[in-house]
Amino acid sequence: MRRSRAALSAVAVTAVASIVLAGCSQQSNQNSGQTAAAATGFPETADAPDVPGKPGGVFRLGIVEPTAIDPYNAQESEGILVNKQLFTGLVQVEPDGTVIPGVAQKWESNSDCTQWTFTLKPGTTFSNGEVVDAAAFKRGWERTAAKASASDTAYHLDEVQGYAQLQDGSATTFSGVDAADPNVLKVTLAKPDCEFEIRGAHPALSPVPTVAGPASNTAYNDLPIGNGPFKMDGPWQHDKGIRLVRNDTYGAGPKANLDAVEITITPADQGAQAEYNGFQNGQFDWARMPTPVLAQARAQYDPQGEWLNKKTAGINYLLVSVTQKPLDTADARKAISEAIDRNAIAQGVFQNSQVPATALIPASFKGAYQEGVCTACKYDVADAKRLAQSSGLVPGTAVNFQFNTGGGHEEWTAAVKQQLETNLGLKVTYSGVPFRDLLKNEQAPGATGLYRAAWSADYPTAGNFLGPLLSTAAIGAASPQDVAQGDNRGRYSNPQFDSLLAQASSTQDDAKRNDLYKQAEKIAIGDDMALIPLWARQQSRLVNTAKFANIKFDFFENPTLATITTK
């Protein structure tokens, strides 16, 4: 799970936003977004070449309070940032999506991709000196998958034989995991997956030491001992901060250069502004920005080499509760989608820093990307009204629309609300809540309407978008009355879609697998409109390049903390 808090960052709605909303309204009245220039997004920043640097230094940044940093439940952008510094899994992912060895030095599957063998690097340890062996992975996987853990991310292990028994509480061990040889991890899957090895990059599949205990061990939750390039320097100070120091015994890859990373936890409703202010006054070395200041910040910091902008492997979208009225039909959801002028919002609110999306799978997955598969991602008010009328989404219909505060979403969600009310006459019940509350509200059995959402890849495959967000298995609820424990919180379910995903997983040929992914996306997004793509994900940051070198976005949209050096 890689739900992202912020595409960009926000402050309270400002005069700038008011002007933008007025502009969006004018676009809506014109019944077409074609009169506006097409949004292109900010130009990507070229990666600076790696340079020799000096070890040492303390790198400082801000986040909001994570859901978890313990691998059993690390799930959103904030928690993943911390967790990835503390733990290294079987494999790692380079910024460009290339999979490289982590603790595993090599891996192979049998002919039908149901059995995988990982050979581990000898002699790597946790920061407390305990050896990282096959048993440490088995221990971590069982801890995550145990029913009592109630992990939101356990489904990343759902293919491993024995998962169902762990989830229903009838077993305490993974029958499909053999750790008899400390240097070899053998995994038997309940169904074929020819890409299973890349799941080894997810926190849910991390190894843990014996001291971890069950997932209910709050002492370990707040002070996890891992095997990553950094280790905790004291427990997590909730709502205040987390301090990491270099793990000098790190053995799964190159050691980090920084002495420490100081993470300040900022208020949930002011996080972006706090980061921006902190960068300006020298408190932070990496920062997000409020949406209204993007252009100003770019103009100021780009000439100084302190501006970083990248298209990333992610998508911004609207989560839709597809089993609940009034959005329980494809036509109703398509009406919502066609009533949104994405280009006007990208040009106005986002100041041309974002590009409208016409697909769920990002363009960075070149083999699976299909521009325009979302045929209802166009702005067409007349057709939106026709679809709304036929689906019972008549003027005055109440539609819930919720977003998380402090993450840069106030302005654009306000614009969407305005367009839905103006173009379709809906009564949009609009509310902002802290990010953790938003995630809980999406999961509730009675969830209805629309939720602000974004997804960044957990690991580099198109299947990581289709499976977690749209497969029946990823709903994670036994009945409509149960909490949706998985990431398919819209509760979309289509047997034909599920079948295509299963075929893709069992296909070794990359081109054939991507073709199956395309067919599945066509059904879920092109036909069923199971969720509503909005903008291809693009990220901007301010970076202290006067003091630090070798800083890039990692694959997960965080700074490459392990490579940073001082100048």
Q: Any overview of this molecule?
A:
The protein has 567 residues and is of the alpha+beta class. It is built from 15 helices and 19 strands. Strands 11, 12, 13, 14, 15, 16 and 17 form a seven-stranded mixed beta sheet that branches. A hairpin with a 5-residue loop joins β4 and β5. α1 packs parallel to α11. The chain is globular, with a radius of gyration of 23 Å.
Morphology call: globular
Structural class: alpha+beta
How many distinct beta strands?
A: 19
**Average of per-residue pLDDT values:** 92
Strand fraction:
15-25%
Residue stretches low in confidence (pLDDT < 50, at least 5 long) are 5-34
- Tally of DSSP helical segments: 15
Residue share in helices? Answer: 25-40%
Largest sheet: 7 strands, mixed
* Radius of gyration computed on alpha carbons: 23 Å
Oligomeric state of shown chains: single chain
Distance between the amino and carboxyl termini: 35 Å
List keywords for this structure.
567 residues, alpha+beta, globular
Q: Could you give a short description of this structure?
A:
The protein is an alpha+beta fold and 567 residues long. It has 15 helices and 19 strands. Strand 2 and strand 3 (99-101) form a beta hairpin.
